Amino acid sequence: MQEDTQGILKVTTPDRNLRTCYTIYLLIIVWGGILPWLIPLAFFSTPLVTLAVSLPLLLIIAIALWWIGAYHRSIRYRFTASEILWERGVWFRRSGTVPYRRITAVTITPGPLHRFLGISRLTVQTDGNASGTAPAAGLKIDGISSPDRLRDFILTRMQEENVPGS
């Protein structure tokens, strides 16, 4: 995370271990979902059929590995004095804004693989839209290596935004 002279976080990106996490998820999918079908095919069909099935699968896996890296590099969070700005996406860029005054809760949820890799997910819940007709929305900030520090920063900014007269 980069900080300015007043201690306001400017830009943060996920820890590199988030990329490792996504790669492990891909390996689990390949191991559990593809290999059980591919191994019998290799034993009970001709080499040409095995090759015809294996090459497209290898191409898909290679594209998925490329996409994991590109997606990881695309994720950005900017913490300004009044809001959190986020953007992500490889082919379809998405971005949004979460004002501190609309945040209702900030939770840290590390999954088992996240804990093993030393990262967490920070979930920022908001109150929905201004008219109150939408359900509560939120922002998930994945791959944070020091979630307590970021949560404390957001909670401090929330309190400063909700002070009467500001």
Task: Report on this structure.
The chain is an alpha+beta fold. The chain has one domain (1-166): PH-domain like, CATH 2.30.29. Helix content is 47%, strand content 23%. It has four helices and seven strands, in the order βααββββαββα. The strands form two sheets. It has a four-stranded antiparallel β-sheet. The longest helix has 29 residues, at 16-44. The protein is elongated.
Q: In summary, what is this structure?
A:
With 166 residues, the chain is an alpha+beta fold.
Assigned CATH architecture:
Roll
- What's the overall average pLDDT, rounded? 86
Order of helices and strands: EHHEEEEHEEH
Largest sheet: 4 strands, antiparallel
Intertermini distance: 27 Å
Spans of at least 5 consecutive residues whose pLDDT stays below 50 are none
Classify the secondary structure makeup into a structural class.
alpha+beta
Number of strands: 7
Helix content bin: 40-55%
Which percent band covers the strand fraction?
15-25%
CATH class: Mainly Beta
Shape: elongated
Count up the domains. 1
Question: How would you write the strand order of the largest sheet?
Answer: 1-2-3-4
Radius of gyration: 21 Å
CATH level 3 topology: PH-domain like
